[in-house]
Amino acid sequence: MDDFPKKLREKLSERAANNALRKLSISHIPIDFSSNDYLGFAKDDNIFKSASELLKERNYTLNGATGSRLLSGNNILFETLENALESFHDCSAALVFNSGYDANLGLFGSVPQRGDIILYDELIHASIRDGIGMSNAKAYKFKHNDLFDVKRLLELNRTDESEVYVVTESVFSMDGDSPDLLGFVQLCQDNNCRLIVDEAHAVGVFGASGVGLVQELGLQQHVFGRIVTFGKAIGCHGAAVLGSETLKQYLINFARSFIYTTGMPPHSLATILMAYQELSRTACLEGLRGNIVYFREQLALHKLNFIESHSAIQCCVI
Fold this sequence. Notes:
Layout: H1 6-17, H2 45-57, H3 76-88, E1 93-97, H4 100-110, E2 117-121, H5 126-133, E3 138-142, H6 147-157, E4 164-169, H7 181-190, E5 194-198, H8 213-216, E6 225-229, E7 239-243, H9 245-254, H10 256-259, H11 266-281, H12 284-302
Parallel strand pairs: 2-3, 2-4, 4-5, 5-6
Antiparallel strand pairs: 1-7, 6-7
Helix pairs in contact: 2-11, 3-11, 4-5
């Protein structure tokens, strides 16, 4: 008897035949044009050493959190980090998750209720799609960055009882383009909708000290929820949902990806704290922004067909 199901083996064979079979390899990148480490923080010696020193100062010798944050896994570093995030990102409350994927599963899997409506961009990240799939709300995708299509779907599907959540990214992870966030805020205000923005690829790139595109535009008080991640420009891993104190309390009680998982280890929390400190005082953002401007100038000079983007993600259309 074959030791692997036939249907699954056929799917692997089909993917191999299409030259699309994924494999793991050890990364050796002399010049980095492919990672999310936009500021070089993942390899920064000062951040690494500062994180270790912080743990020594606070006498933290734990290798792991020991359990869920609701049981034995919470510690003062979580509170320190969440307080720092609230100050840096100008929000009432922040809740740390183990990854951006976990944050989106927890947020979208628990907040929209049966009878509610989710309107999401057709190019939204897979983690948001999976979170929406866990929800009991009805979900409809709108054309990429198209406010008119959002209005059309709103008029077609809204009922008097439904909460409506409009979901987009401030910088899209594949194309690197951005929506008209001012227009999205205005639409949500005019139609009593709740706006959720994933800022994974905007933190560390846009705004003063890399606060993100929402804050650069001064829209943070008009957004129901923001997702910021630490695995991109921050150079570590993990994420946080930013919003109201009530939203944080709700997620602690109902977000399954928060409740049923071991908390992040102390060293990761210390690394994120030190990376944010570095972000606040470093000039590396100017280096990144200079590279983006130079790259766009060269594209224009050589008449290359790339999607319009002022972010660290530049996409060639082939």
